[in-house]
Design goal:
Layout lengths: L8 H13 L7 H11 L25 H10 L4 E4 L4 E5 L1 H7 L4 H6 L5 E2 H4 L1 H9 L10 E9 L2 E13 L5 E10 L1 H23 L3 E6 L4 E4 L1 H7 L3 H4 L4 H5 L5 H12 L7 E8 L5 E12 L5 E10 L1 H23 L3 E5 L5 E4 L1 H7 L3 H4 L11 H16 L4 E4 L2 E2 L5 E2 L1 E9 L5 E10 L1 H23 L3 E6 L4 E4 L1 H7 L3 H4 L11 H14 L1 E10 L5 E12 L5 E10 L1 H13 L4 H6 L3 E5 L6 E4 L1 H7 L3 H4 L12 H14 L4 E6 L5 E13 L2 E10 L1 H15 L9 H18 L3 E8 L2 H8 L1 H18 L5 E6 L2 E7 L3 H16 L3 E3 L2 E3 L3 E7 L7 H17 L5 E3 L1
Length: about 850
């Protein structure tokens, strides 16, 4: 061996101490010993490296250096020192044992000649070559290397750093191998456990996510990927809220997750809200969340489990709407309806049944239906007929008398049907009852008078006919058959509507009968069996019962076709229009089309307008026409668009009264001058009826607010106008708090009074353009056009405060109530009014959860 210079121990010791002082818990020992090799062993006397030039070559070896040598030899971490040619110069015993080299003592003393790394540890040499160590610019590396030995596989974390002498010359490499076999095995076991958990999560039906403390996705199962349409790699590492939650809900959901993660929600939190699939579709999901913590209890993330309830929620909403519709129909039916148990006990009764049996619903519920029958024999008959129909899987239809509260017996048509569940089991029975007392009375009256009229039927030349109130022919005489060319069996049981030429004549006839009770001299056109028409003049009246109520219709008619034709010929042969003009019952005016001066008026016009004819001949049309010029032009355009031959105007009478009229006008030549000939019909009553029908069709009967259909119709128009002209629009949903308790405590009449009081109060607080409607039950909505969310919230607060201060007097009781409200506004992505109302409804639901009697804006 060559003589080597000994480095003074004190500088080296100081270096070791200084380096060791930096070693703390958690530091990587491999890094520590790599640094040790670079800073200390580079000057070791037995390392084969040159000592610093300032060392004395003649200085004998210092025994204190053996302490550092001992430290190097005692290291349990394998350490190798390579020269620049990748030959091993020095190894500690741990490295000798790992490589299987011989002469451990020689290696330990440093008496061994350098050996190529490939001979001692070819697995290490190939790994270092794979990292490109020694190539230009690559002076260090750190890699994990597996080693297969007789007793199994071991894993090392290899740290290689450049070694240099005290002149900073490249003099080789320091290689430190840290045994990480236990850690690798632990990671394998952990990966196996993770795979088992992942397999379990992939087969469950729920969507499962794990989020880290920052809200990013750490893990997602296959169910979630399938339901939401994402690949796993598209979700991992992404912010869960930003990726899946709709934009308008993100802040709220992020707040909820924060509350769960921060421990402010003690138990497992369960919420239902929407998420968005990859294709942009929204799914309603019921979520459960749980905090993930370390062994020390520190939160590190969150576990989310979600069940897709989109279809379930849609089914529930459809069922709720259907139930509401069925209940409304049940209550509104004019026929009595009883819902019975399979044991024939009354479960429910509609208002018509209460009126029929003169008992309240509370008195009827729970009572055996046998108590409504005349006798036990009648009830047995009822059961037998019902069972026979049920066995044949049919509905039972029969006539059987019943009795009222005070024992009064009345004839009744009954319909009995089974209510069955999805499994075919019988759930109950529906009993529909119609009081046919009037029909029986009418039949009896007609039967008693049949003989009296039989002789008249057979002798008179005029047609005679009796019908029920629905128009079904009950009786005709021979003259009727002769005039209409039918046999008697062909007419009896036929509806009289088939004998009219036009629906308008039929409606006019019925309206006159209902209004006046009788018709005299009404001319109509009848259709005969061969399809030809005849003009008839009819007289008819209502047949009344003992209570002075109409139960049938009776009338006569004669054929005046020839007379009408003769009159037509006469009118056509007349040279002047005067006779027709003077004697016609229709209101007629003759005017100058240029000046609008009234030239002439017939007596019917005199009677209608209240002016003498002489006065009317001095007047102008503008004096009786109540519409201004713009309104006139508007009506003319509307008439042209609708293809009408008449105008609908408002005329002013001499008394100042306004009447709605239909004006049929056309040009006519009178004594060489062109005139405007107008026939005028008073349609005031008809228009009032039309407006009343429109009001009934669009207004909630109880509260007077817009009904659900009208509210949605008007709301759709306002939403489209808002989007078209970029105008703000706010929607408020309001719901009475604890309304069921009001009904249960004070009765449904009190609940109805509360609803009417709320509607009246809200209507007085809104503007004219605002839309207010009742959507159902105790739920109402308001649409505020050209109102932003701030102004709309202020309006909602004003409504809430006002309603909270109301007191409803119900008998001796005073009822107060509060409302909860949700407020939102139309947004760029909204397409329908339903979308806006859904958001307002969610805000309303949030107000309910937060304690009620409050306004929450979305």
């Amino acid at each position: 061996m060559k003589n080597r210079r000994i480095i003074p121990e004190e500088p080296l010791r100081n270096r070791v101490r200084e380096h060791a002082a930096r070693l703390r818990d958690g530091d990587d020992p491999v890094e520590f010993w790599a640094a040790f090799c670079e800073e200390v062993l580079a000057g070791h006397p037995e390392s084969g490296r040159a000592a610093p030039p300032e060392a004395d070559a003649d200085c004998p070896p210092d025994p204190r250096t053996s302490r550092l040598h001992t430290l190097f030899l005692s290291l349990r971490t394998p350490v190798l020192l390579l020269n620049a040619d990748f030959a091993v110069e020095v190894m500690n015993p741990a490295a000798v044992e790992l490589t299987g080299a011989r002469d451990m003592e020689a290696w330990s003393r440093g008496d061994h000649d350098p050996v190529p790394l490939g001979e001692l540890a070819p697995w290490l040499e190939s790994a270092l070559e794979g990292e490109g160590l020694g190539a230009e610019g690559v002076e260090s590396c750190r890699i994990d290397v597996p080693v297969v030995q007789r007793h199994g596989e071991r894993h090392f974390n290899v740290a290689v750093s450049l070694a240099a002498d005290f002149s900073d010359r490249h003099n080789g490499y320091a290689v430190v191998l840290d045994d990480i076999t236990a850690r690798v095995e632990g990671e394998r076991q952990l990966a196996g456990e993770r795979n088992r958990v992942a397999h379990y999560l992939d087969v469950v039906g729920s969507m499962v996510f794990t989020l880290n403390a920052a809200g990013k996705v750490d893990m997602v199962n296959r169910t979630a990927c399938r339901v939401l349409g994402y690949a796993e790699e598209e979700l991992l590492g992404r912010d869960w809220v930003d990726t899946l939650v709709p934009l308008l809900q993100r802040d709220e959901i992020r707040d909820c997750l924060y509350l769960v993660l921060s421990g402010q929600v003690e138990e497992e939190d369960e919420r239902t809200f929407q998420v968005t699939t990859r294709e942009g579709f929204k799914r309603m999901v019921q979520w459960q969340s749980q905090v993930l913590t370390t062994e020390g209890g520190l939160p590190v993330g969150m576990l989310l489990s979600g069940t897709d309830i989109t279809e379930q929620r849609a089914i529930e909403e459809a069922l709720a709407e259907k139930e509401l519709w069925l209940r409304s129909t049940f209550v509104a039916l004019g026929e009595a309806v009883l819902i019975l148990t399979p044991e024939m006990t009354i479960l429910d009764a509609n208002p018509a049944a209460e009126a029929m049996f003169e008992r309240t619903q509370a008195e009827l519920q729970g009572e055996p239906v046998s108590g409504l029958h005349v006798s036990a024999g009648h009830y047995d008959d009822f059961l037998a007929r019902s069972k026979a129909a049920f066995d044949a899987e049919e509905r039972a239809l029969f006539e059987l008398p019943l009795k009222r509260r005070k024992g009064e017996i009345f004839p009744a048509d009954q319909s009995v049907s089974l209510i069955k569940g999805d499994d075919g089991a019988t759930l109950g029975v529906v009993n529909v009852i119609r009081d046919i007392s009037d029909r029986k009375y009418a039949e009896a009256e007609l039967k008693r008078s049949e003989e009296k009229f039989r002789r008249i039927f057979e002798t008179i030349e005029e047609g005679y006919m009796v019908t029920d109130l629905e128009g079904t022919v009950l009786m005709v005489n021979p003259a009727t058959c002769r005039l209409l060319q039918y046999e008697e069996p062909e007419l009896v049981g036929r509806n009289i509507d088939t004998l009219y030429k036009g629906a308008g004549e039929r409606m006019a006839f019925r309206e006159t009968l209902r209004g006046k009770g009788a018709v005299r001299g009404l001319q109509m056109t009848a259709r005969r069996k061969d399809g030809t028409f005849i003009v008839i003049e009819t007289n008819a009246h209502q047949v009344l019962n003992n209570q002075n109520e109409p139960v049938a219709l009776e009338g006569t008619f004669r054929d005046i076709t020839r007379r009408i034709e003769a009159e037509k010929v006469l009118r056509e042969s007349e040279k002047q229009y005067r006779a027709f003009f003077e004697n016609n019952h229709a209101i007629m005016l003759l005017s100058d089309p240029k000046s609008e001066r009234i030239i002439d008026a017939n007596p019917a016009a005199e009677d209608f307008y209240g002016y003498p004819v002489e006065v009317m001949r001095t007047m102008n049309l503008s004096q009786i026409n109540a519409l201004d010029r713009d309104a006139m032009f508007t009506e003319m355009r509307r008439s042209m668009d609708e293809g009408r031959t008449y105008f609908i105007l408002r005329h002013r009478l001499a008394s100042g009264e306004m009447r709605d009229v239909e004006v049929y006008s056309g040009p006519i030549m009178v004594q060489g001058a062109q005139r405007l000939y107008s026939v005028i019909h008073d349609v005031t009553k008809r228009i009032e009826l039309e407006q009343e029908m429109k009001l009934l069709a669009t207004t909630d009967a109880l509260t007077g607010a817009n009904n659900r259909h009208q509210f949605f119709s008007l709301g759709a128009v306002e939403v489209q106008r808002s989007k078209r002209y970029d105008l703000p629009l706010t929607v408020i949903m309001l719901d009475i708090d604890y309304f069921k308790s009001i009904n249960d405590t004070y009765g449904h009449a009190a609940g109805d009074q509360v609803l009417k009081t709320l509607s009246a109060s809200v209507s007085t607080l809104l503007r004219g353009p605002d839309i207010f409607g009742r959507l159902g039950g105790e739920e109402f909505a308001v649409i505020l056009p050209q109102t932003d969310i701030g102004e709309g919230t202020a309006v909602a607060e004003r409504l809430r405060s006002t309603l909270a201060g109301l007191a409803v007097e119900v008998g001796a009781e005073t009822v107060t109530f509060t409302v909860s409200m949700g407020v939102t506004q139309v947004r760029a992505g909204d397409q329908t009014v339903e979308e806006v109302l859904n958001r307002a409804d969610e805000a309303l639901y949030k107000a309910k959860r937060m304690g009620r009697n409050r306004v929450v804006r979305d």
